[in-house]
Amino acid sequence: MYQNLALLAAFLLTYSIFAGRFESRLLNGPLMFMLAGLILGPAFLSILQPRIDREGLKILAELTLAIVLFSDAASADLKVLKAHEGLPLRLLLIGLPLTMLSGWLVGIWLFPQIPLIELAILATLLAPTDAALGKAVVSNPKVAASVREGLNVESGLNDGICVPVLLMFLALLVEEQAHSPLSLAVELFVEALGIGALIGAALTFIAWLLQRYSRKHHWQTPMWSQLTLPGLALLCFATAQALGGSGFIAAFVGGLLASYLFFEQKHNLLKASEEFASLLSVITWVVFGALVIPWAWSSFTLNIWLYAVLSLTVIRILPVLISLTGTGFDFETRLFIGWFGPRGLASIVFAVMILDYPLQAGRTLVAVAACTVLLSVLLHGLSANPWVSRLANRAD
Question: What's the whole-number mean pLDDT along residues 200-224?
Fold first, then answer.
């Protein structure tokens, strides 16, 4: 255990010191962490041997996504939704549903043996994009502000939007497997959604009232106030899960409400939450490289590789081009927006989640997700800086 911890800490320390150098080239954090896990792990050098079972992996992934969902929702500027010709609104309301639909149709073509409901689950878990993987784009001042803000808001909200869709398909799957009436599936879905939303909103409102009362009496300290939102995120998630709701919905709704209620202070309060999310993300990416990729590698067939490639290209880019029809963006900019929809943390967590359900093709779905995320980390990481430079040179 201590050897694993020492290796992870040494790598994290080294990367934190030289991050600017790495990310100015063709590398990014998730790519480096995934490669470190893969190379140092059991598949190659066997120096890093994380002893974590499926339940442990699930808890790690769920906590990471809960913090990320809350932080992304809380930091999202909802005023940007309608700005810049409605770019993020178009991506979320038109592009996202079309991405799910096209992913489902391509799945029917490549995996005709997999039940339709499971293909819908696959399309949904690969639909959300990852802000961390696209950081080289959304934080680069060379990229037009409209494109940066649009992609940032899209990646911050689309994983939260995909959660209820995934829950709906999983409820339908359970209903189908148990030969129960459709009303039961609807009841399970509404219950998970309703409890989660109610818990997230109620706890966030209570936390805001307590925080306002504390500020009024000058009881707050800068050090401890940094833990307010991380604690709230975990409280929303864990309480909703314990009461039979969706912790992810609770975290997402709580984050959205916190964005409004804590508006004046949210940027300072969110620093610790984002740092906590970054640390958990590092561990998740290392474990993904060390354990998940080697486990899934033997299941990678030609059709799985083909679906992964299509997921990152046609399935994502065509809906984006359609959603941006009629805007003032030129074709290359629209293509750029379509390409930089990397798949990452949310897809990994959703893939781990579905293993608890009675899927006929569970291993195949997880293998497709792992293959897609692997390609995304490599291709988006390597292509970000060169394409950004090209757009910047063209603008000059």
Answer: 91
Q: Is the pLDDT of residue 141 over 90?
A: no
Q: Report H helices in the chain.
A: 2-23, 29-40, 54-75, 83-90, 96-110, 116-125, 135-138, 145-178, 182-216, 222-225, 228-242, 247-261, 266-287, 293-297, 302-312, 314-323, 331-339, 345-354, 362-395
Q: Residue 25 pLDDT more than 80?
A: no
Inter-axis angle of helices 302-312 and 314-323, nearest 10: 20
pLDDT at res. 24? 61
Cα 62 from Cα 144, distance rounded (Å) = 33
DSSP per-residue codes, 302-352 = HHHHHHHHHHHTHHHHHHHHHHTTTSS--HHHHHHHHH-----HHHHHHHH
CATH number of 29-395: 1.20.1530.20
**Cα(50)–Cα(38) distance, rounded to whole angstroms?**
12
Q: Encoding tokens for residue 2? A: 């201590």
DSSP assignment of 195-249 = HHHHHHHHHHHHHHHHHHHHHHTT---HHHHTTHHHHHHHHHHHHHHHTTS-HHH
pTM: 0.90
Between residues 99 and 147, the one the model is more confident about? 99
Grade residue 26 by pLDDT with cuts at 50, 70 and 90: low
Per-residue pLDDT of 70-86, as tens digits, reads 988 888 777 777 777 78
